[in-house]
Specification:
The chain is of the alpha/beta class. Helices cover 35% and strands 27% of the residues. It contains 14 helices and 18 strands. The strands form three sheets. Strands 7, 8, 9, 10, 11, 12, 15, 16 and 18 form a nine-stranded mixed β-sheet that branches. The chain is globular, with a radius of gyration of 20 Å.
């Protein structure tokens, strides 16, 4: 029996679990493991009558390597799909190494005490995973994830060299709240309030938060303001895609979101530095997370679409060429299918596909790899099949 252990039971995990259950030919068994077992049990109760996939649940503290090892040893999964927090990547990787189990995640490691995410910590495991004969697939979400697969596909089929990549992440959804985040508020706000950066001529160029703004007209959504952010896939794509001169990441934000965020920043609510409050140490950002709407609750009230993709500029047969690969996803359609909004859906579907690629042996290389280091074709095919069909534009409007 092919089995996958899924660690985490939030919005993205819920989508991935729904998709594993739809794909029971590959996922004959899954175990949902989380700090809060009641959430896992509720999902099992809902899904077990609808699927041939045998669902089990467990309680686990993903910060505890010994607990993770014991659980992996008792369940013996073919792959561990990490949909917990980025702070827990290394403990889960340690447990996978100890048990010689394949590992898949959607976001790179981030130390709890510094809002600094980069691949160096996970890349340091390359030799260990290679020696153990197991695969670690890093960043199998949408961005990072599908954006890397899109880049590998463009490189394989459309270009001899890619010189410029602009990754555009547009959420045209409206949930009706003055301020809420579409995924984990702590991760979201850390990401947005950090300095921006992009890679040019092999070097990082740093910008102030939200300093660089562009306006872009997105198919299915319309014209939106977007801002340059630091994003982890820039680091791996700059190394793995041939000919890169510059790579940037832009994300759209509405004015209401930015105004609220600025106010919260100004009063210290987005800080990750602990403070004393009534004799107890608290982290302001974690307190803010507790008072904001749970992203999982936004599904029924979010309308509109997302449009996420990559614009490539490069050369083919000596001639300049541009190419845009993207996906449009409808919040309400996602909610109808799996009970979540499109932000969780666009990450959860590729997480399932990445785990499937490893489980069925389509991708099979021992070591630690970013997603663009594998053959993109089977993944691209699976995106069309499992709910994230992609579109192409051979004459896109470029970002200046």
């Amino acid at each position: 029996m092919k089995k996958c252990m899924i660690i985490g039971c939030g919005g993205v995990a819920s989508v991935a679990i729904h998709k594993c259950c739809q794909n029971s030919e590959v996922f004959e068994g899954i175990m949902i493991a989380s700090r809060t077992k009641s959430k896992c049990d509720a999902l099992k109760e809902k899904l077990q009558p609808t699927t041939k996939t045998v669902i089990e649940t467990a309680q686990v503290n993903a910060d505890n390597v010994d607990e993770l090892i014991a659980l992996i040893e008792s369940y013996k999964p073919d792959v561990v799909l990490n949909l917990a927090l980025p702070y827990q990547d290394l403990t889960i990787m340690d447990a996978c190494l100890a048990t010689k189990t394949h590992y898949v995640d959607t976001a790179n490691y981030e130390p709890l005490d510094t809002a600094k995410f980069e691949y160096k910590w996970q890349w340091a495991y390359r030799e260990k995973f290679e020696k153990a004969g197991i695969t670690a697939l890093l960043g199998s979400g949408f961005d990072p994830g599908v954006t890397g697969v899109f880049s590998a596909y463009a490189m394989k089929h459309e270009f001899d060299e890619i010189n410029y990549i602009d990754i555009l992440d547009c959420n045209g959804g409206d949930h009706g709240y003055p301020f809420a985040t579409n995924f984990n508020p702590e991760i979201n706000i850390r990401e947005v309030s950090a300095k921006g950066s992009y890679i040019e001529d092999g070097k990082w160029v740093e910008t102030e938060p939200m300093e660089i703004k562009r306006v872009y007209n997105f198919k299915g959504v319309g014209e939106k303001d977007m801002y340059l952010l630091h994003h982890e896939e820039l680091e791996s794509l700059a190394l793995n895609i041939k000919g890169i001169k510059r790579i940037r990441f832009f994300m759209t934000f509405g004015q209401s979101y930015l105004t609220h965020l600025k106010c919260l920043e100004n009063v210290g609510m987005t800080s990750i530095e602990p403070i004393m409050y009534e004799g107890k140490e608290i982290v302001p950002l974690q307190f803010l997370k507790a008072v904001l709407p749970d992203p999982a609750s936004l599904g029924p009230r979010t309308v509109g679409k997302t449009n996420i993709g990559c614009i490539f500029t490069g050369k083919k047969d000596g001639k300049d060429k541009t190419y845009y690969l993207y996906n449009i996803c409808d919040h309400q359609e996602c909610y109808k299918e799996v009970g979540s909004q499109a932000i969780s859906y666009t990450t959860g579907v590729p997480a399932m596909i990445g785990a499937m690629m490893i489980m069925n042996g389509t991708w099979n290389k021992a070591g630690v790899y970013n997603i663009e280091e594998f053959d993109p074709d089977p993944f691209m095919e699976a995106l069309n099949k499992w709910g994230l069909p992609w579109e192409e534009d051979f004459n896109p409007t470029l970002v200046d």
